[in-house]
Amino acid sequence: MTRNNGSGGNGSPGQGPGDVAPDPDAWNEEQARANGNYRGVYEVVSPATPPRVVTLNDIANFAPAVGGNHMEPNGWIVVGLDTNFYSDAAPRVVEGSLLGQPAAVRFTPVAWRWTYGDRTSKSSTSPGASWASLNLREFDPTPTSHVFAAPGSYAIDLTVEYSAEYQFAGTGWVAIAGTVELPANRIVATASDANTVLVNRDCRQNPGGPGC
């Protein structure tokens, strides 16, 4: 009996008759390790990937400038007639550091709540608009106007509710659960009946007064 010494019929040492010839172009991890060429397989993790879910608490330092609280007639209230209120709050982008990385946070106003100082309030999904931009006459009712029933001094407050999104460099905007409520400027105005207003200050003295 002839013993196979590892030489195949084609003269290649270490290859038997039934063996398949190795592919010289195939990557050999063991050989690469032996030669010092092995680099392994690494998971690529983007530095912009946050380690956890971003919450409203994480963006507490990103508060935007809140849009203004406006009224017309400006500074005047006529008892029994509509006083128009509106806001110019708009989307704002604030840049800073979030979870230790440069980031931007975008705030978008989604709701407005006026407190009129007479124990009434109104919430709206619209910021309102001036009478002129709505093509209305002075004292016409609007979705955000209010009628004061009695003379006096009133403090009118506006709270704007914002949704928030964050963005790291090279990534898209990601929504943050919940909303942020921020106060706008307070307006203090005096309400009088129409006769008192017109007698005390006529339109020549105060062109911006009611009815002028």
Quickly describe the structure.
The chain is mainly beta.
Shape: elongated
How many helices in DSSP terms?
2
- The CATH fourth-level homologous superfamily of the domain at 56-200: Immunoglobulins
Low-confidence stretches: 1-12, 38-45
* CATH topology group of the domain at 56-200: Immunoglobulin-like
Summarize the structure in words.
The structure is a single chain. This protein is mostly beta strands and 212 residues long. It has a domain at 56-200: Immunoglobulin-like (Sandwich), CATH 2.60.40.10. 7% of the residues lie in helices and 35% in strands. It is built from two helices and ten strands. The chain has helices at 29-35, 194-200, and strands at 69-72, 76-78, 82-87, 92-98, 101-115, 121-124, 146-147, 152-168, 174-183, 187-192. The strands form two sheets. Strands 2, 4, 5, 6, 8, 9 and 10 form a seven-stranded mixed beta sheet that branches. The protein is elongated. The termini are far apart. Mean pLDDT is 81; it is low at 1-12 and 38-45.
